Amino acid sequence: MLIALIFFLFGLLFGSFANVCIWRIPRKEEVVLKPSHCPDCGAPIKWYQNIPVASYLLLRGRCSRCQKKISPQYPLVELAGGVLFAAAYLKLGWNWQLAGYLPFLWALLVISAIDLRHYIIPDVLSLPGTGLGLAFGLAGTFYPGLNLSVFGSGDLFSLPSWLDSLLGTILGGGLIWLSAWGGEKVFKQEAMGGGDIKLAALIGSFVGWQALLISLFLSFLLGTLAGVPLLLAGRLKKTTEVFADAAPGQPAKAMVPFGPFLAMGALTAWLAGRFIWGLYTGLMFK
Predict the structure, then answer these.
(1) pLDDT at 250 > cutoff 90
(2) CA angle, 259 then 264 then 265, to 5°
(3) Distance between terminal CA atoms of the chain?
(4) C-beta of residue 119 within 8 angstroms of C-beta of residue 242
(5) CA-closest candidate to residue 271, choices 134, 157, 150
(6) How would residue 286 be classed by pLDDT, with cut points 50, 70 and 90?
(7) 73 pLDDT higher than 50
(8) Among the listed residues 253, 126, 115, 261, the one whose alpha carbon sits nearest the alpha carbon of residue 191
(9) Distance CA 219, CA 259 (A)
(10) Within 10 A of 259 (CB to CB), how many other CB atoms are there?
């Protein structure tokens, strides 16, 4: 538990960096060398004002200079980073799999927050992330301790690590592309964006094809359960609210950011994929 606490604190720090990326990447700002500053007044943030969670509480959620409110997103993302890193250690222990999954979980956190705020999934995260997942899949072929797929080898329908990662990538991107194509034909409007396709490919490259199928099923289920009530309540943003040049002269359409649901499906499959698959096969082949 002491090591889990250390990983939690480590995750808080990476959650703080996630906040920097969430703010700057959509605005195409430099994310590493540029010092932290207040987004309202531009005042530089001193190191003791930048301690994850604690500084937000001590400053009572306000900038020390202009007194503008600081979004609660900042401590929430930091806490989420801490929880994800601690959960990864508790699930995997101290091994090479842990080193592989930490950047994956961090990327899901950043992508989800950006998609929620801006309705975009930046290629600068999804494309290198997919490449990293495929690289780990190839490395896991020669060093099985690095195998990141949820089911690994020795299970029903198992494949070599590199092929599992590659098939997960192709299935992830392909199935979401097929859903987007079918949705556009049926509903006569864009159902999913290219960012969702690339994110699904990223997820598949890390979790493998079996857990990818579970991830997609859970993503669509969660998206439906959350999206329909929000749509009926009129709480979803419209295309004209998100994109200034969206469909000029056309009626505004409600939008659901699907990236967070893909991330939640992936996290659930990662944590409980074996249980869900066992439950499914037990019911199907009973």
Answers:
(1) no
(2) 95
(3) 39
(4) yes
(5) 150
(6) low
(7) yes
(8) 253
(9) 9
(10) 25
